[in-house]
Design brief:
- The protein is α+β, with helices and mostly antiparallel strands.
- The protein is 20% helix and 34% strand.
- The protein contains two helices and five strands.
- The chain has a three-stranded antiparallel beta sheet with strand order 4-1-5, covered by helices on one side. A two-stranded antiparallel ribbon has the order 2-3.
- The relative contact order is 0.37.
Amino acid sequence: MPKYKISVTDDCIGCEACIAICAESFEMEGAKSRPKKAVVSKIGCIQEAADGCPVDAINVEEVK
């Protein structure tokens, strides 16, 4: 089963769109969002959150 590395870049503007879409996987740390887990085995709504980020600050990479 593949695993996925989730990260949020410094481009994050803290709009909380990712939390609105996928609260089980993202949380705020100060004024920026961060993933609750850096590596996951199921993407679920994480890809939707990445697609919905207005500044493309969420990266989803398959770990090999």
